[in-house]
Amino acid sequence: MSPHVGKIAQFTLVTDFTIILMHIATLRLFPGITAATIRAFLMPPIRGVVLETFGAGNAPQRADLMDALKDACDRGVVVVAISQCAKGSVSADYETGISLLKVGVVSGGDMTPECALTKLGYLLSKPELSVQQVRGLLGTPLRGELTLPTSNLPRSLSQAGIDESLENIHGVLSQVLRLSAKRQNIPNITVSPTSPDKPVSDDSIAAWSWTAAEAASTEAALLPFLMHLAVAKDDAEGLAFCLRDSEVATEDAEAQEMKGATIIGGVANCIDPASGRSPLHVAALNGSIRCTNALLKAGALVHLRDSLGHTALYYAARQGHESIVDYLVKAGANFGGSDIEGGFVSLIAKKALHAHDERALRIWTKAGAQP
């Protein structure tokens, strides 16, 4: 490993690289080129050659030329073939290109002459690399210098891999819809023209198909996750997007059925099924002042309690977020559930009193506690 890795340092040229440049060259093939010319060109101290071939990697198919190239490759000279054309890549799809590979010439893909020469010099300057390793790395993109043929692409980047990834995404979204289906043991705040007891359509959890109704269903399922994340980071822009995007703009009757779960009031009070917390709970815990204000304006309910029975006001006071306590109290919030019945408020307020923590006492008093 280079001693400069992970350090801020001035760029320096490796001495070995400068020396190796004197032992590499480019050879441009032309009709009528002789085997003697190639042999003379590949004699020591030459260690590497960029061979500029015709078209997509073609070369004269004379036996004496191939023998000259094979002899050099067998001696350890690294020969990389590129195209003389301004655009395009060498290919092994043609018989003439295959013959070069058989004698030991390495395909340089679509590298330019300058790129191939620089890469060849760089690799040969590495004493820890064998000739075979250099040949292997020449056909491997190190810094995006060449484009892999489709057949050599990692599966994740090939069309088959992309199709498979999309299929996986569709599967994940189908599971999101399935798990987001209404369950009786989870509080559900909706405003809907249809009966709240109407079961969720099986279509919304069926194998993926992109209908208008399912698009709306997917959006309704994903918006709560996005909203909780935006609120945790106090990202007012992300929260505004969720509140704005929650209005379903479609005439499809099935999609309209989802509107109850996605109107502003509903999304502003969406419950995290794991903790039972609303976005307002998340804002209070994380000190998200901007999002607290936005949620209250959007109709967030201040009296909701999470799975532990705590209110957003309790979390704001416990975390010492005085500004959020002020917002919540102004909106009519008070302690309830486990805050009072579990003795949490009185216990923490008394601890603040005994510790002479004036700031904590002020916050708890504002919130309605009596130390």
UniProtKB/TrEMBL annotation:
InterPro entries: Ankyrin_rpt, Ankyrin_rpt-contain_sf, Asp/glu_Ase-like_sf, Asparaginase/glutaminase-like, Asparaginase_C, L-asparaginase_C. Keywords: ANK repeat, Hydrolase. It is an enzyme of class 3 (hydrolase). Transmembrane segments: none annotated. Pfam families: Ank_2 (PF12796), Asparaginase_C (PF17763). ANK repeats lie at residues 275-307, 308-340. SUPFAM superfamilies: Ankyrin repeat (SSF48403), Glutaminase/Asparaginase (SSF53774). GO terms for biological process: aspartate family amino acid metabolic process. Its EC number is 3.5.1.1. It comes from the Eukaryota. Residues 24-136 form the Asparaginase/glutaminase C-terminal domain. One of its GO terms (molecular function) is asparaginase activity. PANTHER family: 60 KDA LYSOPHOSPHOLIPASE (PTHR11707:SF28), L-ASPARAGINASE (PTHR11707). This is asparaginase.
